[in-house]
Specification:
The complex is a heterodimer of chains A (218) and B (87). Chain A has 218 residues and is α+β, with helices and mostly antiparallel strands. Helices cover 44% and strands 23% of the residues of chain A. Chain B is extended, with a radius of gyration of 20 Å. The chains are: A alpha+beta (218), B mainly alpha (87).
Chain lengths: 218, 87
């Protein structure tokens, strides 16, 4: 079943694929797509979570970071990944991406211990890539059940399931997060699995009342 | 106290209504909406780039990013604890 959300967004619910057409990519999109492309090339399983997902689908706000979570990487796999990223113009905030020793130190000091790391692109500081490997069942769920977004029939990026993202944003509860949750809920209401959404709302102990504001729209 | 809470509630409702409006704009305008939004995003980014040309601003921002990563780890741990606790 394919649901048409707008003249440039269609959601193939059965295949878990969203098609998005844009006249051009924003700077945020370019950074996210290039990073995703590198993960795709290496066959690393990942999903994008948080604010960028709402921005990708048209939310009118800026974000400081584009959040990627991957399955755990071995040290050498991380090294290979960093070297590819370096060739494509990314830098490591916590180390020197030009030095193998520094990359290994970042792996041992941050990733292995569960800390996130950040990559900047070119001269840009914001937005940057927030990157970490999965640790919690929730994060693994987000990767295992990710949706595929195909932008302009060319770029492929994986995002965590919308139901989980909406519930998680309500759980976080900042004004920005609540706004994103209501935005995604309103935009994709017809395509959401409402049983799944309620499951996550209940798991995270959050109230659906915020989303009821969205119920009055459209 | 009640006046502050009422004001906060009004602000929140207005913010959520704006999010609904934003989603409806995407649905109605489609590609055109993205053109308008991306022009605004790119202009804002250009202004930021001018600020980042100052090395002191760059350094302060990069330091702030490192601290932010450490705080996020603490938040993750809290969520993990919550998910492990029944009820």
């Amino acid at each position: 079943m394919v649901l048409v959300i707008s003249d440039n967004i269609a959601f193939d619910v059965d295949r878990g694929t969203i098609f998005l057409e844009k006249n051009s990519l924003s700077e945020d999109d370019r950074i996210a797509m290039l990073f995703a492309e590198t993960l795709n090339e290496l066959g690393v399983r990942y999903s994008v979570i948080a604010g960028y997902v709402a921005i990708l689908f048209g939310r009118a706000r800026r974000s400081d970071d584009i959040d990627f979570i991957t399955y755990p990487l071995a040290e050498d796999e991380f090294l290979k990944f960093c070297l590819l990223l370096r060739d494509r113009g990314f830098k490591l905030v916590q180390g020197d991406i030009g030095s193998e020793g520094s990359i290994r130190k970042v792996y041992e000091g941050y990733l292995e211990r569960g800390f996130s790391i950040r990559f900047t692109y070119g001269d840009l500081i914001l937005p940057n890539i927030w990157f970490k490997t999965a640790r919690s069942p929730l994060q693994y769920y987000g990767i295992d059940n990710s949706l595929t977004v195909i932008v302009n029939k060319k770029h492929l990026i994986k995002i965590a399931p919308l139901e989980l993202q909406i519930a998680y944003k309500l759980y976080l509860g900042s004004e920005k997060d609540l706004g994103d949750a209501v935005f995604l809920y309103t935009l994709f209401r017809k395509a959401l699995n409402h049983q799944e959404l309620h499951k996550w709302l209940s798991t995270l102990g959050v109230n659906i009342s915020m989303l009821e504001v969205a119920g009055s729209g459209g | 106290m009640k006046a502050i809470e009422d004001e906060r509630r009004r602000n929140l409702i207005s913010l959520l209504e704006h999010a609904v409006w934003n989603a409806e704009a995407v649905k109605k305008l489609g590609k055109r909406w993205f053109e308008i939004r991306d022009r605004w995003l790119n202009e804002a980014l250009m202004r930021d780039k001018e600020l980042w040309a100052d090395p002191r601003v760059r350094e302060a921002l990069l330091k702030a990013l490192e601290v932010k990563s450490k705080l996020e780890k603490l938040e993750d741990e809290e969520l993990e604890r919550k998910l492990k606790t029944p009820g």
